[in-house]
Design goal:
The complex is a heterodimer. By secondary structure, chain A is mainly alpha-helical. Chain A folds into two domains: 52 residues; 223 residues, MetI-like fold. Chain A contains twelve helices and no strands. In chain A, helix 2 packs across helix 11 and helix 6 packs across helix 8. Chain B is mostly helical. Chain B has a single domain, classed as MetI-like fold, CATH 1.10.3720. Chain B is 69% helix and 0% strand. Chain B is flat and about 90 Å long. Classes of the chains: A mainly alpha, B mainly alpha. The interface between A and B is large, with 98 and 94 residues.
Chain lengths: 280, 298
């Protein structure tokens, strides 16, 4: 329709936009690529690519940073956060989807605020409270801190999925004598599996990458992978750069495997999709 | 009152149910209590604690923060990083989103762009240290092209933090902007084109007013993230100098001088500044058109 009227200036503009996108992706690839190449380099100084390659930095990183322990802690934290935010979040989403009650707006605001306040702002007062309760530096403190953004996230992602389920299905189950627990286990959870799976996978990916809250509440025995990586990078010079990058690659692979799985169930825009809920 | 209820009068349980309060509604309680305990309570506790300094009267922490240039100067420093980064991300996102929304196969691009968001700023910072370092690929390329004679210092300064905020922030802003422009009914633009409006006139008079509200929210969300920048300000910035942001001051108060009270005050000041900017932006938004931008997409 407007093709015939596209002027040269417009074509230059379109070209400029795509050049920028290409340039951005190229830089992104180079940033990730530089970490990947360095992690398998014997020595890399003053050349485009290293002279020789080796895998031994991965073994070094594994033992130097005690990655076995760190990965165990990471998956314990992530598993507990996913489980707890699912168990608390899905019933809450159900109530918010099905009932209109006085104060519902206030409850929605309560679940929106933790997603809008940056983790560094809430992390410091939260860490103070957790340390006073004796939970600071423990794995439970880290799990509780990570629930702050995860639980509202599960609720806000699950609500639209519940809205789509026909209420008559539930009424039929009620007529046949199902109580709320049976309604959940036999009717709602099977119907909601795609939505719950999407929400929990997103929480999983976000919790692996959640730096600030874990950083502020963890101690030496409760560090997750991303916090350990931060300490390794900030203490540059103490360890070989290649071994830090080998650790960065292990972190990257751990995160991206789950991202790929998550993207089978969700649209990439949902990962930043808290604004969709904020608009309602 | 319940004792005098007439036989016809419905019981308390039924009256509550009519207002939407029954067993199902109670399912919201565990989650609400968890957020009250883990978010609202620490926030109030932090606010109270900020008025109970180690020494001096209730306002001593705030007086100390605004009296010590080493502390209060973190505010202009942080704003000086966060505002340009957010504006740059939005300025880059809008033209790209306007082109991408017409593509049939957006999925590949959105998937690539979600990667830096997922990996987070710590990994991006480590990558930038390699890529932008004096022996990194970017400096080598620029020298091979004879654009520069010697490596340019791109990390461990202000620019390092700005790059990291663009690398992690542009995809975030872009995906938000894309979801807003996808919600604009294409018929509105076609109507404008039929009436003879060129691409630039269509952007200025149709798209921009419709996007303004979404862009204001995008600005707020991106700004709040950038304002709380921490890991990249330490790793690729100059944390003792040009990128000593307010998060660093709060962290040092809490974990290096163990002054919980001062740390809480700084966290409250951070929250207050974020709130002021968000309120200003959202108030400015009402100057633009606010209404439906397209057919029924909520």
């Amino acid at each position: 329709m407007t093709q015939s009227r596209t002027s040269i200036l417009d074509r230059i503009w379109i070209l400029a936009v795509w050049t920028f996108v290409g340039f951005f992706i190229l830089n992104l690839a180079a940033i990730v690529g530089a970490v990947a190449v360095n992690s398998v380099a014997t020595r890399w100084l003053g050349t485009w690519l290293p002279k020789a390659y080796t895998w031994h930095w991965y073994a070094d990183a594994w033992s130097e940073f005690q990655l076995g322990n760190i990965l165990t802690v990471t998956f314990e934290v992530v598993g507990a956060v996913v489980l707890l935010s699912g168990l608390l979040g899905v019933p809450a989403a159900y109530a918010l989807s099905r009932r209109d009650f006085p104060g519902k707006k206030a409850v929605m605001l309560l679940f929106l605020l933790p997603l809008l306040v940056p983790p560094m702002t809430i992390g410091i007062p939260l860490a103070t409270v957790l340390y006073r309760l004796g939970l600071g530096g423990t794995i439970w403190g880290v799990i509780l801190a990570n629930l702050v953004p995860s639980l509202p996230f599960v609720i806000l992602i699950t609500i639209p999925f519940i809205d789509q389920i026909d209420q008559r299905v539930e009424q039929a189950a009620r007529v046949f004598g199902a109580n709320t627990l049976r309604l959940f286990t036999h009717v709602l959870v099977p119907l909601l599996t795609p939505g719950i799976l999407a929400a929990l996978l997103l929480v999983l990916v976000r919790t692996i990458a959640m730096f600030e809250l874990t950083f502020l509440t963890s101690g030496p025995t409760s560090q997750t992978l991303v916090v350990a990586l931060y300490y390794a990078v900030s203490a540059a010079g103490v360890r070989a750069g290649q071994s830090v990058d080998a650790m960065a690659m292990i972190y990257m692979v751990t995160t991206l495997v789950w991202l790929v799985i998550a993207l089978r169930f969700v649209n990439p825009t949902q990962i930043v999709g808290r604004q969709a809920a904020a608009r309602d | 009152m319940t004792g005098a209820a007439l036989p016809r009068r419905p019981g308390l349980r039924e009256r509550l149910a009519r207002r939407g309060l029954d067993g199902t509604t109670l399912l919201v309680l565990p989650a609400a209590l968890a957020i009250l305990a883990l978010f609202v309570f620490p926030f109030i506790e932090g606010l109270v604690l900020s008025f109970l300094p180690k020494q001096g009267g209730p306002l001593a922490n705030y007086a100390k923060f605004f009296g010590d240039p080493y502390l209060w100067k973190t505010i202009p420093t942080t704003l000086g990083i966060a505002i340009p980064a957010t504006l740059a991300n939005i300025a880059l996102s809008v033209p790209v989103a306007l082109r991408v929304r017409r593509m049939k196969r957006q999925r590949l691009l959105t998937t690539i762009l979600v990667i830096p968001i997922t990996l987070g700023t710590v990994l991006v910072a480590e990558g930038l240290l390699n890529y932008l370092g004096p022996q990194g690929w970017l400096n080598r390329t620029l020298m091979a092209l004879h654009l520069i004679d010697r490596p340019v210092r791109l990390v461990h300064n202000y620019w390092g933090v700005l790059w990291s905020l663009v690398i992690a922030g542009f995809p975030f802003t872009f995906l938000l902007t894309l979801s807003y422009v996808s919600g604009i009914d294409p018929n509105l633009e076609r109507a404008a084109a039929t009436l003879g409006a060129g691409p630039r006139a269509r952007f200025r008079t149709v798209l921009l007013p419709l996007m303004a509200s979404g862009l204001a929210i995008t600005f707020c969300l991106s700004f709040v993230q950038a304002f709380a920048v921490y890991p990249s300000a330490v790793l690729v910035g100059a944390p003792a100098g040009s990128t000593r942001v307010i998060s660093i001051a709060a962290f040092q108060a809490a974990y290096e001088t163990y002054d919980d009270s001062l740390a809480s005050s700084i966290a409250m000041i951070m929250a207050a500044i974020q709130l002021v900017i968000v309120v200003l932006v959202l108030a400015g938004r009402s100057l633009f058109y606010r209404g439906p931008a397209g057919g029924g997409k909520g």
